[in-house]
């Protein structure tokens, strides 16, 4: 399975200017033509997967649009889209399968990129679904997979396809986002407050036009990031936090045109070897991305122009510095921004979406007022809760320690006053 992620993987075309950015003194440009670009061939010889071969590249745009990547799944695609989108038990089971897949293939990074690229086409200025783009499963269609920015993502789709077959009531849109959030969490990142029930688009004609995702090497990286992310309704803090996802994974010259063919951190995998990572431990989700792009000391670590902008631009820098210093703050902001990204443009069924996380057991702080030897009975908890609520409080928030003291003082003052009045 890991072979599916090998460097011989499909490349639709090379985007981002085809330049390898080398950190510090040895920065040099490698033109696209000087990079070795493999033929547009799928790494898998499986007949179920359709390769983006050079002959398919020559196909007319209309012909491509009408052809789903996995033709035999078409019935599944339409029936799933017609059904209610959220099946909690299937979603939970799919999550367990994704965890197993991660353990054997180490595909965390590409699954995160898959979820982001499905959602990141959203345009807040367009109201209609699915014209507004976003997390709607459109990235499963060949016409969108062939966008330059999506080079290599066909490999992620191949990993997701068996789950779609096994859990037909889960939509592609949900599977992409479930896979991404699970990958972040399993890599050691924060718990992401996700909801599910995204409806899938039904045909390739509903795919967004090319050019919605950010370019890694635009003339003014900070302005470009703002233009693209503001269009999605995201702000500076969210741009910086989400960029922190590059703590995972690598760039490969034969996919995006960025990164070295291999470094000391990637030559032995895990998973398919090669590429250039942003961090030393590129399968661990932490705040090392911010530390590394700030320092730019290690020539084996990647810094894209859009990464460098996070410390060059004064507004981005405030957040980037904070995240380099404090992983807890990064995790909190990342989890919120990731959840928001995963919902962009999505149409939910039911409209409010569903959670697949078990409810957190009630935190009953009032228990500390018991003897401490045994748990309070439910009746006692209800009684205590009612008493707290009667004074406008809640047992979930411990009262100030001087609360009872204040009552005693008030009673004492009243007693003194009434005795004075009595006299
Ligand atoms: C800020 C603008 C962004 C730019 C310009 C950008 C650009 C890129 C590029 C050029 C690659 C290399 C792809 C390859 O060669 O295989 C990449 C990989 C990646 N990106 Fe981004 N990205 C951006 C934002 C994001 C965001 C918001 C996320 C997730 C929330 C993300 C997650 C990833 C991951 C996990 C990888 C590694 C994929 C792998 O190892 O297979 N990126 N990105």
TrEMBL record:
Needed cofactors: heme b
EC numbers: 1.11.1.11
Iron-sulfur recorded as keyword: no
Membrane-spanning ranges: 403-422
Keyword Transit peptide attributed: yes
Domain Plant heme peroxidase family profile positions: 111-392
Gene Ontology CC, one term: chloroplast
Region Disordered: start-end pairs: 1-20, 33-57, 250-273
Gene3D superfamilies, alphabetized: 1.10.520.10, Peroxidase, domain 2
Low complexity bias: start-end ranges: 1-13
Enzyme kind, highest EC tier: oxidoreductase
GO molecular function: heme binding; L-ascorbate peroxidase activity; metal ion binding
CDD domains in UniProt: ascorbate_peroxidase
Keyword tags: Calcium, Chloroplast, Heme, Hydrogen peroxide, Iron, Membrane, Metal-binding, Oxidoreductase, Peroxidase, Plastid, Potassium, Transit peptide, Transmembrane, Transmembrane helix
One annotated GO biological process: response to reactive oxygen species
Stated family: Belongs to the peroxidase family. Ascorbate peroxidase subfamily.
Protein name (database record): L-ascorbate peroxidase
Taxonomic lineage of the native organism: Eukaryota, Viridiplantae, Streptophyta, Embryophyta, Tracheophyta
